[in-house]
Amino acid sequence: METNIILAGVGGQGIVSIAYVIDMAALEHGLSFKQAEVHGMSQRGGAVQSHLRISSQPIHSDLIPRGHCDLILSVEPLESLRYVEFLAPTGTVVSATEPFVNIPNYGDVDRVIDTMSALPSHVVIPAERLARAVGSARAANMVILGAASPYLGLPEALLEKGIIDAFRAKGDKIQQMNLAAFRAGKAAGAAYRACLAAGIPSRNARVLVGRVDGGTLHDQAIAPWKQVFDSSVGPTVHELLASGTQGRLPGSPDLPVALLGATGSSRDAVAALLFQSAKA
Amino acid sequence: MQRRPLLGDEAVALAAIHAGISGAFSYPGTPATEILEFIHRETRNMPRASADGVSHAWSANEKVAFEEALGVSYCGRRAIVSFKHVGLNVAADPFMNAAVTGVKGGLVVAVADDPGMHSSQNEQDSRVFAHFALIPCLEPATQQECYDMTRAAFDLSERFEIPVMIRLVTRLAHSRSGVQVGERRQPNPLEPTRFPNQWTLLPSNARVGYDKLTRKQPDIVAWSEQSPFNRLVLNPAAGRTGYLVTSVASNYFLDSFAPGEQIPSYLRIGTYPVAPSLVRNLLEAVDELVVIEEGYPVLEDMIRGLLDSPMGKRIRGRRDGLVPRTGELDPDIVRTVLGKPPLPRQQTPAFELPGRPPRLCDGCPHIDSYNIISSLLGEHPSARVFSDIGCYTLAALPPYEAAHSCVDMGASISMAMGAAEAGLRPAIATIGDSTFVHSGMTPLIGAAKRNLPMTVFILDNSTVAMTGGQDTMASGDDLVRIVKGLGVDPAHVHKLEVHRKNRERNTEIVRNELAYEGLSVIITARECVVTARK
Description:
The complex is a heterodimer of chains A (280) and B (534). Chain A has 280 residues and is of the alpha/beta class.
């Protein structure tokens, strides 16, 4: 096997921690790996990237040739697009939706995310929102790692062990939080893909999976959610899910079924229905 | 044997520990910083060198670091000195002369070059320096070779009684992989040289030493001929073009061929001086030779010489534009050199992505310093700010645009001196606390002696911030004492606490000093926000 990954983000977003976890898992799994990091000047709030190659064969180059990258794993939407030319035609982008705006000319984040969602294989999720739900937005990197985990070709148990190792010095609470972030990311990634497979548009899917508890959407809930987004109440539901309103939703089918009964209701009525079962 | 995940830098560091070093010295500089950082972490529970452990330190500058290592070697013990390529310029004097004195305990010089200038002001190739000093150089391509070659370098150094260079490049220094590692061997016992004449480079002794150095050369070439770190693979079935590859370029070369694909004849060079018979054997087997090396066209020029076609063979590479003359190589460039088509890939976005350059962190004390300087530049359109090397060089960019030069460590003060002599007013220098200790104190003595009309800002954030927050040697009141001790008039030495709340008062002090027709030193003090958070 061989997996070529580009890790992307902005200095301080925890790219190095993601790399460490994957490196340790690959080493433990008896695979070769090479991981080229960026240090020094480029870390001062600038774009940060790392090429990470895992293989059952010896690896020659520390850098991935353009067109050979299987997976872009990014904690920031704009940064994921920066490396698209490295991506193989069959490659996947896993990215957070939340922009890190520290430049005056960031541009339209929706255009950035829509461009990503137009790629043949993509998982685009609100990683920060999911991370906050398990304790801290800083764990967004582990959410993204979780969402990308099915594409890495590494046993999940080794990735979880790597997370425990990576945060050993920070104590049990931080370790558990990062583990929870990883699991939420994995669940949200699966939910996102299931939504797309059912025909739910990316823009609806990503706001939905960011809201559900633990990122977990029940299989039986997906068809009713599709009906919700297709219905006249769909735009209102989307807007409410995308809003800053706090609140997590259950992943069960009951909620979308209830929403389908609310077509024709006012925005406030939909909001009440949507968030009545929500946990603050 | 244990397999550990190590950066190229860390593999060099661990090999040095395992080779039995007693001393390790460095000055921080990307991409070499992690060598000493790793030695620090790895040996923190070991005793000092005097008790057979490892003594290590960030030195004031690279020259000091080199000389400390040389002193260890003089005493019969092993040492490693590490720095970035331009750090070798600072250490050039002892570097050149240590080849003439020779060494006793093994002395390895680990230099990390920065092709493509990720974090540097030039992309000079340290192999040229090794050739200049007439010392051997080992050039690893993999993390494993970083380890194996560094271990071997210590034996080589003791065998030929000469310093040995390990040359890294950014992509190897900062790339991690699994490395098989061994155990630490005993350090050498303390046994100061019994031949002080050899080490005392009076002309009469230096002539002897230089003669000895030149007479070692054939033996070193003979060693290079036999070294397992070079690899000649002839494959007449794969065409009449041969390849000479080094360092990470050899990785990109091998990576370009799919499993089972015929790989053309190639020679992978890992040791310098280059083994002539290997090059000859390759040239005999091909009609055309393509040289792909990371850095200057060192091998290419060596083989081509003044004439274009040695042994009637065409030599191609950076000189004829087949390989780009400047910049870092990557797998795609090498694929193109090999005549391979680009791999199919995703389309880049239809719109241009904004860049995200590095910037000063939110809350950085340099922001407050530069706000004052920038505001006063408006009052003095003729003013120029000579800056130096550190995070504060970022003030050259908008919104500050308050750094008008950055050349080398310490140049801020010396260039301001020259500019003041030339008649520039106000001549301003900005230099960090660590850079000041590195190379700023020496010129400041002269500026004080001559009371040159210039204003020096020491931007004191109490750390070597750009390279990750190593300890600085002088900060705060220590700096005030040093500056006064160097002879600066105490009436014109100010330590300012830079904070938004003090801005008006600080600006007034600076305004007065800019108008003063003599030397002023203003120390703007506040800890780096990144180290303060730790």
